[in-house]
Description:
alpha/beta; Rossmann fold; 6-stranded mixed beta sheet; 6 strands; globular
Amino acid sequence: MGAVKVVVDTNVLVSALLFGGKPGKLILLWQRCTISPLASKEIIDEYLRVLTYPKFKLSEEDINFLLYHEILPYFEVIDVYPGPGIIRKDPADDKFIRCALAGKAKFIISGDHHLLTLKSCQKIKILSPSDFLLET
């Protein structure tokens, strides 16, 4: 069986890369090809935008390192097409569901309340990093 396809929400990715903890354990999973993270161009753009937040105090070199050494070598960037709204309370979260649907992901790994409240969308489970690590 191949790597499990997942979509990693921005908050989980930033936590994994900058703070470790449970989300940090995901890095080893994608480096070992146990999971195969999927992202759309819109998601990659959001990852980069959030990494530039002043509170993280990352230099341009730091951000480029994360992008070119920790994200892009492991994440499959897929084409995602617009569709009807899914999460009314936070439409910005729709991009993660659309990406998971387009890439036939099995999981969305998120810390976002709006996504976690759904629990699933079609056959895609939406789990926190802790719950995902218990399940895999």
